[in-house]
Amino acid sequence: MKYAEISHFSHPKHNLKYDYIEKPFKCDGCNEVGIGSRYRCSSDHQSCDFDLHAHCALPSANITHPFYKKCKFQFLAKPPGNERRYCNACQKDVSGFVYHCRACGFDLHPCCAMLPMVLDDGETKLFLYRNVSSSCHRCGKKGRSWSYRSSCKKYNLHVACVREMLVENWRELYKGQSGKRIEGKSLALKNTLEHHHRSSSKGKVQKCCEIAGMAVQFVISAVLGDPTALIAGVVGSLISRG
Hints:
- This protein is α+β, with helices and mostly antiparallel strands.
- Helix content is 28%, strand content 24%.
- The chain has helices at 54-57, 110-113, 159-174, 180-196, 202-223, 232-235, and strands at 5-6, 16-26, 33-41, 51-53, 62-65, 68-76, 98-100, 107-108, 118-120, 125-129, 147-150, 156-158.
- The protein has a four-stranded antiparallel sheet.
- The chain starts with a strand and ends in a 7-residue tail after the last helix.
- Keywords: Repeat.
């Protein structure tokens, strides 16, 4: 459910207004990068620069997840205890808002907890898996984190790899530098795919890379907290056009 304006415990001085932006922002709740839907401080003071992912602004007190059927995750404003904690979905540090299972000790970033089980643009379908046996097309490794896998089972991308891509580059993105480094990594992904399919015909390679580019776009959008975000102009040209 979307509200035009809300009050939030993490920012009691001012209300937060719903906003949609196609430039990256840093969420002040979970401390992760975001894009698309957000709730932003309604104050006109320039010093009050406060943003929340929609998932962080409107959390559920408790959630369950199909990957952890015995777990009950509770929303917390900060990770419990003093030990370093990481998200079981993307394997990255948890330093702010989190869904935590007290019984099992599992943690999920709010946006990771809400990752769609299926990403579908009408032509390409990607399914979320807790574990897959095939290697990731970015890092070349198996396991490690949740993954999005194409319905043809020929393409796989770790949520952790997408998160790494964002963490390494969010400062450039935040400053509006067109995501050049991310574009470079996307080209590296394209080259990996071409090498992987070097025995295929040129047409098959091109089609595979196009699907891979669309997959990257879908997954980045989802990890950023808005699977509908139009991010092509922000992260560069992710789809190979031959």
